[in-house]
Amino acid sequence: MDFNDIQNAWNNEKTENVVVPDNLEKINSANTPLDIIRKNLKNELIMQSVSVVLIGLTPYLFAFPAKWIVPFFLLFSIFLAVCVYYLVKLYIFYKRLNKITLKTKDSLYETYFDVRLNMELYKTFGFALTPFMVLFLVGFLYHEFSKKPGFELTNFTNTQLISVFSVVVFCILFMGISLEWWVHKFYGKHAKEIKNVIDQLKEE
């Protein structure tokens, strides 16, 4: 193969991933929101891990009666398994983000969809914890009601039943709204900035 053959082969190479300086500058601008997402996720992982430990210490911090200790830790063990599963997945995502260098359009696309996918994972994590939150609160209400003289489990008044159902409904709605707000504030709006860079590149 002579020099002309090499030159022709070079000219025939696909150039979809070649980034011109102007595009490179735009792609690099996506690093700022990505850095914020990394920082938020790191803080989130630390905060969530500490929260799980504190929840595990709740019976001792609030001096639960002895009869509540075993039921609490039975429920907490399931809660812990769910937390570990999702936190490990989010940690793997965090490690993956740390290795990303945005240099091409392809890497920008992949990163954006990875962020969006893990935003949904985070929401799923929150919803998976909702039943535990409900059960903890129902247990707390039962404990408070049981302090009244002559209280029996089968003797709930209408007011008490309405209180329990209201707590359940409130918890579910509160978790749903809070998750949407939290994910948007700490991840969604920064993911949108990355999407805006993608849209600008599409227009060219």
Furnish the topology, listing elements before pairings.
Blueprint (H helix, E strand, L loop, with lengths): L2 H9 L9 H9 L1 H26 L1 H4 L4 H33 L6 H41 L12 H46 L1
Helix pairs in contact: 2-7, 3-5, 3-7, 5-6, 6-7
Account of the 3D structure:
- This protein is mostly helical and 204 residues long.
- It contains seven helices and no strands.
- The longest helix is centred in the C-terminal third of the chain and has 46 residues, at 158-203.
- The protein is elongated.
- It starts with a helix and ends with a helix.
- Residues 13-20 have low confidence and may be disordered.
Report the strand count.
Answer: 0
Secondary-structure element series: HHHHHHH
Reported for the largest beta sheet, the result is: none
Averaging pLDDT over every residue, what do you get? Answer: 81
Question: Total helix count?
Answer: 7
From the helix content, strand content and strand pairing, which structural class follows? mainly alpha
What is the alpha-carbon Rg in Å? 26 Å
Give the CA-based shape.
Answer: elongated
Secondary structure: helix percent:
over 70%
| N-C termini distance | 37 Å
Low-confidence stretches: 13-20
Proportion of residues in β-strands = under 5%
